[in-house]
Write a structure and sequence with these properties.
Length: about 325
């Protein structure tokens, strides 16, 4: 039992290292400006954020008065080190509770607010973190991608509004896809390529890494904002211009639907079911399209054309034809 526990802790630590992606302030500002009105009088909880270096904390503390927030709560996993990237190996986790500047127009430093100590490790699944979650109205953060299913399940369970960052491939998880199909979660405004700050232990072996002034960055092209806060984009119709022909849109072997390889090629006049790539969700308007199911045909096997399976497909139907 002891060896198993040690191995599990080691694997968790390795996973945590891979999840150290720090969102830049410019990306936060770019997305959250579309939701500013909803924050009035609300308690915001950033529960995966070291307040000493979190851009989420910086954003909400800086805009506390203009957003008319009620309170800002911030916690992170075992990290009270003032250095840019701690090793998550401190004995005690901390949290901050901010209720606004003592002097109007001032920008607070975490040290001036004062830290409070948690008895546990600050994991978002801990009892202490859940108690803080219960106090909140809106959760905004960049959670660990490896724990995305668990993270979303928790905020849905406690019926919280949220704006969080995740990987596009999270929609292939059954739990996440079902929430999208049930219209309980959807994409935000700015999705696609996003550049994150990464710790020094990351080695720049890939072309999507760069270093500037001693700071390392990694660009990821499949990043999405997931939210259950309404926005204008999800009510905009996707403009369709192509017409259906059997030659251009083959049917699947195991489902009565046509294959549409690119979202922009969805035919304007097809009444039946269509298989589209998961990137379609960035253009998904629930008033224009109905999501039927994900990935599988009538035989419960992956959708295929002449025996070949295209990458994950979402089966949809145009509601306006």
């Amino acid at each position: 039992m002891k060896r198993s526990s040690q191995n599990r802790n080691l694997n968790n630590a390795r996973t945590a290292k891979k999840d150290e992606f720090y969102t830049q302030l410019t990306d936060i500002e770019k997305e959250l400006r579309h939701y500013e009105a909803v924050f009035k009088g609300k308690v915001v909880y950033c529960n995966c954020d070291d307040p000493k270096n979190s851009s989420f904390f910086h954003y909400f503390s800086y805009k506390f008065e203009s957003l008319q927030l009620k309170k800002l709560l911030t916690t992170c996993y075992k990290n009270k080190n003032i250095e840019m990237f701690s090793q998550n190996d401190t004995e005690q986790a901390i949290y901050l509770e901010y209720t606004g500047p003592k002097k109007k127009g001032t920008i607070p430093l975490p040290e001036s607010i004062g830290v409070k100590y948690l008895k546990s490790d600050g994991d978002f699944r801990s009892k202490e973190s859940i108690e803080l979650l219960k106090q909140s109205d809106i959760v905004v953060t960049n959670p660990p991608f490896s724990l995305f299913r668990e993270y979303v399940a928790q905020i849905i369970e406690y019926k919280k509004k949220f704006i969080i960052i995740g990987n596009l491939n999270a929609v292939t998880y059954k739990e996440i896809f079902n929430l999208i199909k049930e219209n309980k979660i959807w994409f935000g405004i700015h999705n696609g390529d996003m550049e994150f700050i990464v710790p020094n232990h990351y080695q720049p072996r890939e072309t999507r890494y760069r270093e500037e002034n001693g700071v390392k960055y990694r660009s990821l092209g499949t990043i999405c904002w997931f939210t259950n806060l309404d926005n204008k984009k999800r009510h905009e119709d996707l403009i369709l211009y192509k017409k259906y022909t059997p030659e251009e849109y083959p049917k699947y072997d195991n489902y009565d639907a046509i294959e549409v390889a690119k979202t922009k090629d969805i035919p304007m006049d097809y009444k039946g079911v269509m298989g589209v790539p998961i990137t379609f969700l960035d253009k998904y308007n629930p008033e224009q399209f109905e999501i039927i199911k994900f990935r599988k045909g009538n035989d419960d096997k992956d959708l295929s054309i002449n025996g070949k399976c295209p990458y994950f497909r979402i089966l949809i139907k145009n509601k306006k034809i």
